[in-house]
Amino acid sequence: xxxxxxxxxxxxxxxxxxxxxxxxxxxxxxxxxxxxxxxxxxxxxxxxxxxxxxxxxxxxxxxxxxxxxxxxxxxxxxxxxxxxxxxxxxxxxxxxxxxxxxxxxxxxxxxxxxxxxxxxxxxxxxxxxxxxxxxxxxxxxxxxxxxxxxxxxxxxxxxxxxxxxxxxxxxxxxxxxxxxxxxxxxxxxxxxxxxxxxxxxxxxxxxxxxxxxxxxxxxxxxxxxxxxxxxxxxxxxxxxxxxxxxxxxxxxxxxxxxxxxxxxxxxxxxxxxxxxxxxxxxxxxxxxxxxxxxxxxxxxxxxxxxxxxxxxxxxxxxxxxxxxxxxxxxxxxxxxxxxxxxxxxxxxx
Length: 349
Ligand code: NAD
Ligand code: DAU
Fold this sequence. Notes:
By secondary structure, the protein is of the alpha/beta class. It is built from twelve helices and twelve strands. It has helices at 11-23, 63-73, 87-92, 94-116, 154-173, 195-204, 224-237, 254-269, 298-304, 312-325, 327-333, 337-346; strands spanning 2-6, 28-33, 53-57, 77-80, 124-130, 177-182, 184-186, 209-212, 218-223, 243-246, 251-253, 280-283.
C-alpha cells in the first residue's frame, strides 16, 4: 500500500504520518507538502530516516505538477490534510484559502480520478475536514453528520466547498471517498497561532494573553493523537461515500480553558498561583466569531468503536510538557515572519 499524505509537515499531518508509519510498517508513505509557514520538517525528525517514508515538496494548487506526481507514483490511497488552516489569517487573506483549500483539493481529486481511471477497487481518497463547516451552535444541540452546512469564515467556507467537491467526485465519477469532520485539535507541534500553543508561548514569555470578546465562545477539544487514531479506523474500516464526525465530547468556554492552562503552567514553571491569570487581556472579538462548536461522534463510536484515549486534563498537561521540553522548536517557529504576523494580528486589537 502506497499512501499519499498531503500536509504531512503540519500539525495534524505530522501526527498522521507518524501514526501510519509506526502502526503499518509495510506501508509506504509519501508526504507532499508545500512547507508554508505552518509546514516544518522538524516535526518529522523522528521518522525521516524510515525507509518507507518519502518527502516531496510541492504545491497542491499546481495541477500539472499534481497530475505528474500521481502518474509517476500511482498511489493506492490519499489522506488529504494540506490546507490553509487558521481562521484569523483567512479573514486577512481569503484568496489563499480558495487556492490551496478548494483548487488544491480539486487538483488532487482530478489526479486520483485520472490515475485510477475507473479501477477503484482497493483505492480511497480520504478528505480531512472540520466541524466549522456546520456553522455555529446556540447553547443546545450538537453537530451530526446530517447537520446542514452553514460556514461563516472564509476558512470554513473554503473547507465546505472542498467537502462538496469531494462528494461531487464520488457521486459523479464513482471515486471512492470518505470525509471526516473533526473538532478543535490540540497537542505537540501545533503552530503557535492557534489558541493553546499561542497562550503557552505567551505565558512562558510573560506576554499578554489576548482573549477575543468576552471569552465565552465554546470549543470541543480533541487530542491530536486521538484524531490520528480515528483517521486510521475510518481509513481502514469506514464506508466509501460516508462522512464521520470526530470529537472529544469535551466542551470548554475559552476563558475556562485559559484559566486551566494558566494553573497548569504556573505549577510546571514554579510560579506563584494566579501569576499567569494576570496576563489575561480582553481584546476586540474576531469578526464573524462562531459561538459554539460541539460534535456528536456517536456514529464513529457505534460503527468503528472509536473513543478518545485521554482526558482533557491529561492531554493538556502532556501538551504543556512537550512545549516546555521543546522551547527551541517554539523559538525557531516564532522567529522571523512570525513577529510580523503577530504585530499585524494583535497590535490593533
Ligand atoms: P497546519 O496549518 O498545521 O498544516 C497545514 C499543512 O499543509 C502545512 O504543513 C502546510 O505547509 C501544508 N500546505 C498548506 N497549503 C499547501 C499547499 N497549497 N500545497 C501543499 N501543502 C500545503 O494545519 P492542521 O491544523 O494540521 O490541519 C490539517 C488539516 O486538518 C486541515 O485540512 C484542516 O482544515 C483540518 N482540521 C484541522 C483542525 C485543527 O484543530 N487544527 C481540526 C479539524 C480539521
Ligand atoms: O473546529 C476545528 C477548527 O479549529 C479547525 O478547522 C481550524 O483549522 C482550527 O484553527 C480551529 O479553529 P478555531 O478558530 O476554533 O481555533 P483557534 O485556536 O484559532 O481559536 C480557538 C478559540 O479561541 C476561538 O473561539 C477564538 C479564540 N481565540 C483564538 C486566538 C488565536 C482567542 O480568544 N484569542 C486568540 O488569540
